[in-house]
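We store sequence, tokenised fold; for instance:
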Amino acid sequence: MPFPTSPQTKVPQKASVLPLPSRAPERLVGVGFRCWLKGLATGDISHWEDAFNAFSAQLGPERAKHLLIELSQFVRAISTTAEREIEVADKGFCGFCRDECLAISIVAACQHGAHPALQSSATALLGSDDIGDTILGAQTFASGLKAANLLLALESVCPATCALKAQRRRPM
């Protein structure tokens, strides 16, 4: 069931929302993905600062810097190869939309070696079979998170059939 939105927090049209996970690893991945993608889209550095603040509060500034470099490579791979518009919720929204959940699923699948779900989640997120750079970026980010003792739950992996249903093409 979607969360109500206030004037400051809204979700893109058509986006279904899942509650914000209580687990720190999923929350960091989802919020980091949201902030980094919004920063790339708008050029507004405050989005990247929000990501740094979230990671730094959990891990300290030095470890946060390293993980954010890995996150940025993952998000850049997505933004350069996506054949569809990637949707993210606004700052402060109390849940994750479908594309944010797919990003979380990709990272969780990397950590758990769930290769079919990894491939289908990446394909669904990008709207393309050109997933190589995204998977490489996700694997690096997932390894960095694991080294920081941030292991995403196996339940965060979207089943392959679920991810394939989520595909939509970018409007031409």
